[in-house]
Amino acid sequence: MKAVAIKRYLPIDNPESLLDVELPRPTPQGRDLLVAVKAIAVNPVDTKVRAPKDKVEDTPRVLGWDAAGIVEAVGSEVAGFKVGDKVFYAGDITRPGSNSEFQLIDERIVGHAPASLAMEEAAALPLTAITAWEALFERLRVPRKAAAGKASSILIIGGAGGVGSIAIQLAAKVVGLNVIATASRPESEKWVRELGAQQVINHFGDMSAQLKALGIENVEHVLILNDTDKHFPAAAQIVAPQGTIATIVENSGPLDVSLLKAKSAGFVWEFMFTRSMFQTPDMAEQGKLLDEIAHLIDQGVIKTTVSKVLSPINAANLRQAHADLEGGRVIGKIVLKDF
User: Fold this and answer.
1) 264 and 149 in one domain?
2) Fewer CB within 10 Å: N-end or C-end of the chain?
């Protein structure tokens, strides 16, 4: 089967950073689905895993953690899917990724793809939707239904990126929170407002002062999607007493959590691969939430966040997508379709 893989960890402008390869087609066992991949999306995790390091792979390593496709075959223990089903999923970082014609994936972390979307539109959703959903409802513990007349506020730092684009929609359109998003350019401000953000501030400026200028002293929830080291002190200042800060971005230095003590405020991580990595007892919750996302899409409550589509799926186009992401100015999601 065709695949795009890495053998050495190189800068993205090196033509050998991502390679077109031929690999054996895998066979499903147990709870695995064999999916014929039709479209993939690219995420910051792809660029971070591929980033230059002193390491050489003995066999080609396939990256990619966002896909939509069709079930080609099923393992003997599969109960929720059949051959021919259209599916979407983010996958498992401990297993070969989605940048290949066929992929094995545990059925528990797979959802039925939205009926109303093309494959490339569906492929843009899984990783960001799972991350945003878990961050809001499981880490920040935002109630699924806001109390009448008591809508709380959330500050989403890095609102125009992939996760932010879904988090804004879930917070504003599903829960009814007052959503403040950060954006630093006119086009990204326009994007987050269209998704449902009621107020927009610039994360390169003094966020606390900007909020006060809007008449907002504190917010109950803060979601950091960009540079935890830089934004944590401001988040600690902005979060309300007994509020919570969540982040998805690894820190490079110590974070002073003592800043939260006086407020009895919380700090929590969201990492969407935790369930599959540790085979947690609630691993199937990811498949269920993807089905809920598909329902919200098909009902027109939220929308996919594709901003760019490349074709076909090959090393040259993936290198371009990685380079775009590393440039730090991508709005929404970059998707590739068709081998």
Assistant:
1) yes
2) N
Whole-number Å distance between alpha carbons of 327 and 171: 28
Task: Work out whether the CA dihedral 284, 289, 292, 297 comes out positive or negative.
Answer: negative
Mean pLDDT of successive 10-residue segments in the chain (339 residues)?
98 97 98 98 96 95 98 98 98 97 98 98 98 98 74 94 96 96 96 97 96 96 97 98 97 96 98 97 98 98 96 98 93 96
State whether 294 and 262 are in the same domain: no
| Pairing relationship of beta strands 178-182 and 199-201 according to DSSP bridges | parallel
Which backbone phi and psi does 284 adopt, to 5 degrees? -70, -10
| HEC profile of the chain | CEEEEEEECCCCCCCCCCEEEECCCCCCCCCEEEEEEEEEEECHHHHHHHCCCCCEEEEEEECCCCEEEEEEEECCCCCCCCCCCEEEECCCCCCCCCCECEEEEEHHHEEECCCCCCHHHHHCCHHHHHHHHHHHHHHCCCCCCCCCCCCCEEEEECCCCHHHHHHHHHHHHHHCCEEEEECCCHHHHHHHHHHCCCEEECCCCCHHHHHHHCCCCCEEEEEECCCHHHHHHHHHHHEEEEEEEEECCCCCCCCCHHHHCCCCCEEEECCCCHHHHHCCCCCCHHHHHHHHHHHHHHCCCCCCCEEEEECCCCHHHHHHHHHHHHCCCCCCEEEEECC
Residues 153 and 254 in one domain: yes
Please check whether residue 171 lies inside any domain of the structure.
Answer: yes
